[in-house]
Design goal:
Elements (H helix, E strand, L loop, with lengths): L1 H18 L5 H9 L1 H18 L1 H29 L4 H4 L18 H16 L4 H17 L5 H29 L4
Helix pairs in contact: 2-7, 3-4, 4-6, 4-8, 6-7, 6-8, 7-8
């Protein structure tokens, strides 16, 4: 069964990474995948929410920072547990558009962090849910386009990130029912 799933994942990887590769995706996807390109944007948005969003904004920003730190660290543990080599380490003919530095790729930190943040911010700001999840999806799929993750690495990362965010949302609701920290 695992062999079958691996063959599907590898086929999907080649379809996205090689077949869908073109001059546009080869420029856009490395930009999307690079965290440093988003850093200033994230700082501005988080600062705005923190200072202009009232009590809810402060709780949202502090919560997402705690969530990302936890999610990022838990992902490193899961990578060592699954020990799944990145496609750029084992496959031939990969359209590698960024460095292939670390060994393991399951689950994708980019997917975990972005889907966790999208889920948490959707709780606080449901009107932005669609754009948050589109952005998380684009960041996740960019990792396949640039050659450093299999599609299942992204799917598992999305699942882990959403699950971790839902657990935090549950905790926040419990705390809010006692202390009214959100509204």
């Amino acid at each position: 069964m695992l062999e079958f799933l691996n063959s599907i994942d590898t086929s999907l990887f080649y379809f996205i990474n090689v077949t869908l590769s073109n001059s546009v995706t080869n420029k856009v996807m490395p930009f999307i995948t690079e965290n440093n390109h988003w850093l200033l944007f994230y700082i501005i948005i988080l600062g705005y929410i923190f200072f202009k969003g009232g009590k809810k904004g402060k709780v949202a920003v502090i919560s997402v920072l705690v969530l990302i730190i936890f999610a990022d660290q838990s992902t490193n543990f899961l990578k060592d547990y699954f020990a799944r080599l990145r496609p750029c380490k084992v496959l031939e003919g990969v359209n590698l558009l960024v460095g292939c530095n670390s060994l393991y790729g399951m689950p994708s930190n980019h997917a975990v962090n972005n889907f966790a943040a999208a889920t948490l911010f959707s709780f606080f700001y449901p009107g932005y849910k669609l754009i948050l999840f589109i952005t998380a999806f684009l960041v996740g799929i960019s990792r396949v386009f640039v050659g450093v993750h299999y599609p299942f690495d992204i799917a598992v990362g999305a699942f882990v990130g959403i699950t971790e965010a839902l657990i935090l949302i549950y905790i926040l609701k419990l705390i809010n029912s006692k202390f009214k920290i959100i509204y």
